[in-house]
Design goal:
By secondary structure, this protein is of the alpha/beta class. Helices cover 46% and strands 16% of the residues. It is built from 13 helices and 11 strands. 50% of the residues are buried. Bound molecules: acetyl coenzyme *A.
Length: 332
Amino acid sequence: MNFLESIKERARADKKTIVLPESMDKRTFEAAEKILKEGIANLIIIGTPEEIEENSKGFDISGATIVDPFNDPNKQKYIDKFVELRAKKGVTAEMAKEQMEKDYMYYACLMCKCGDADGAVSGACHSTGNTIRPALQLLKTKPGISSVSGFFVMDVPDCEFGDNGLFVFADCAVNTDLDSAKLAEIAGLSAESFKTFVGGEPKVAMLSYSSKGSAKHDDVTKVAEAVKIAHEKFPDLQLDGELQLDAALVPEVGELKAPGSPVAGHANTLVFPSLEAGNIGYKLVQRLAKAEAYGPVLQGLSMPVNDLSRGCFADDIVGVVAMTAVQAQLSK
Ligand code: ACO
């Protein structure tokens, strides 16, 4: 069974309720029909009767719950929750109502926060920033976590590296200002994500353009410091660095550049030193190696909320909903 089929099967085994706020996009409805037909999740779609009528034509979404943000008996509860969470930031009831009506992702996050949904997926027609900001503001991080980050499960065809071509890559989506402490935290979260989605033992490589001091620069020191912090925080985790990509993946190169390392040459979880490296890195592998890139999936949030690429197809939405549902199973 391929990666995505196994995730769908897990989602079906304990069905969760996922909210889709992008009723202004036809792909939402195409995906919703498939999700409902395959029994992957229960769905809530946020939209006015006009938006639903206009964009759902030709798709059977009769199994979904539709919530009209302008005419919802639960709306006051969500406004109250918004104010409770954001009053210190100056949010009034009027501002909360306006924001929820203008940007349905706020509505979706409040449904999650109030326990009416288990997770949310958006981003087919909104930027990453606009998709995840409401979640960062309203749902916040898990206890003990300072930063939300974004990973991809990369499924590389005909690949002898990683876990039979399966990898976790992070952070590819969120943090524009990675320091050593954040990198160490991302290493721990990514190892957990590897266990959740790929299974088996994570072997975490902290990537750099240097292997074990072969180059000297502040960028290298940042990663080497992150390795120290990660070893202290996660003493049982198989993690090493700083490592160049070839040293992380290729056994002979790993042996040469980092002899004795438990990770070099066998890494399956790659932590990139910056968002540029992570974002460019996953796209290179996706395009040149024709890998499937599942994500970005957010890690470190208190409840599962995930982003889509604006170039996504309906099947990508189905996949991200299945992954969100699996995260929701584990966060209960
Ligand atoms: N983890 C946890 N909380 C965070 C994080 C984070 N990584 N970043 C911001 N926050 C919190 C802030 O503390 C703040 O909370 P508060 O309002 O309660 O004080 C809230 O989120 C908003 O923070 P801002 O800094 O005001 O939000 P901003 O919109 O400027 O930035 C964002 C957050 C959207 C994540 C920004 O860092 C961003 O745009 N990152 C890059 C996203 C991107 O473009 N990725 C590449 C494309 S994705 C792809 O190709 C797959």
